[in-house]
Amino acid sequence: MIRLFTALEISDETAERLEGLQRGIEGARWIERESFHITLRFIGDVPENIAADVDEALAHIPFTTLELTLEGVGIFGGDKPHAIYARVKPDEALAILQGRHESAMRRVGLKPEPRKFTPHVTLARLHGHEVVEANQFVMANNLFTTPAFAVPRFILYSARSVIGGGPYMAERAYPPGVYDGDLDLG
């Protein structure tokens, strides 16, 4: 079994700006810079033969370079916050790409993703008791924004089967166009 998800990388400049936010919540587990990403589709634990089918399905998704912006921060978990994140500004091309990933995974035979797609970059994992600090963090950083950054490819990542999953390993990259053969991450 291998745990997989698809995601977009963020630029170095954007990662640097995100690192500047990572403070002010006692006990938060801040995400390492190299693990920043925008998840498109969590696939989960699949057998190796299904992983090959996933790769094949992803290789046929049309893709063009995206221009994305991060703006604002938020909390997942409500009264028991479990994550702090930076929001991705709504983008129609991103929504279409995510829908194509969802459709491709259903064609492979995977169950639909039950969660609503909320494009974001996770900044920290919380233990659920940092309610006041998390709310203060959001109020202090809600005007956060980044310049637009180019996203030239999407990535199929593998992760450990533990909470938080990292470190993540890029298994395959899919550049613009529709791909039909082996790719190197190069």
Write the layout of secondary structure elements.
Blueprint (H helix, E strand, L loop, with lengths): L1 E7 L3 H8 L9 E2 L7 E9 L1 H12 L6 E3 L1 E7 L6 E6 L3 H17 L11 E6 L5 H11 L7 E3 L2 E6 L9 E6 L12
Antiparallel strand pairs: 1-3, 1-9, 2-7, 4-8, 5-6, 6-7, 9-10
Please describe what this structure looks like:
The protein has 186 residues and is an alpha+beta fold. It has one domain: Cyclic Phosphodiesterase, Chain: A (Alpha-Beta Complex). Helix content is 26%, strand content 30%. The chain has four helices and ten strands. The chain has helices spanning 12-19, 48-59, 92-108, 131-141; strands at 2-8, 29-30, 38-46, 66-68, 70-76, 83-88, 120-125, 149-151, 154-159, 169-174. It has a four-stranded antiparallel beta sheet, covered by helices on one side. The chain has a four-stranded antiparallel beta sheet with strand order 2-7-6-5, covered by helices on one side. The longest helix has 17 residues, at 92-108. It is globular. The two termini are 26 Å apart. Mean pLDDT is 91; it is low at 179-186.
